[in-house]
Amino acid sequence: MKESMELLEKALAECKTVPDYLSKAICVTKQHPIQCSKISWWKDGLWELIAEFLNTHPDNVQEEYFMQACALLEAC
Fold this sequence. Notes:
Structural class: mainly alpha
């Protein structure tokens, strides 16, 4: 889970419209991946935050990193 959050962070590094709630979720997940993976609803919550963010049609998302991050998150 930590690796997927690191890739997601890279994917969003140049995007100026990343909401605080998503940045904070990425940060918490990166800092506490084991604990977050034990929370049954955590991954579903991350997917909801990502979907909400994508619905804003953000600019400057690094697609390659983003796709890798999503694939790793799905595999967790």
